[in-house]
Amino acid sequence: MQPEKYYSFKKLYIHPTSFGELNHPCMNANKEFLDYLRSKFLEFIDERSQKINTSLPGISAEKIFISRRVKGRAPGNQRDIEAQFNSNGFEIVFMEDIPFTEQICMMRNKKIIAGFHGAGLTNIIGADPSTIVVELFPSHGTNAYEKISRSLTNPYTKFDNKFCDQPSKMQSQLVKLI
Fold it and tell me: What domains, with CATH codes, occur in the chain?
């Protein structure tokens, strides 16, 4: 295999010991790789910026909150949390409703990207280094998005479930970020 060359496979089999212990793909948060990936995302965004659908939710917003429609993955008070972020100037977006290209382009030029822990936060790789990342973290999961944020020098804040269950505490932290 050659560096800088792309390969396509119909099926790819990897032996579990090929890469040592298999973890979440972002767990290593290799800074050089993430910097390279970010540079490619930003090139892509610059090329596509004139062609994206600017009427999609979140595209022109300064602050976005990435929520989800999938039941069982968000806290029981999801709507309350969304309302709190919305009242603080965040546009609520659902990545499952937005084409992938626009998801990537959406990350650029944001002051704050907040969201529930999950795949929707992966696109922070396309965010500017000054973009603040706020992750609402469940009682379990990896710290992959924290590692990505810190490796790419994005300011990072985590709200755990205890915060999410206490709106006044979350509100005071949101005010500090804004």
Answer: 31-177 (3.40.50)
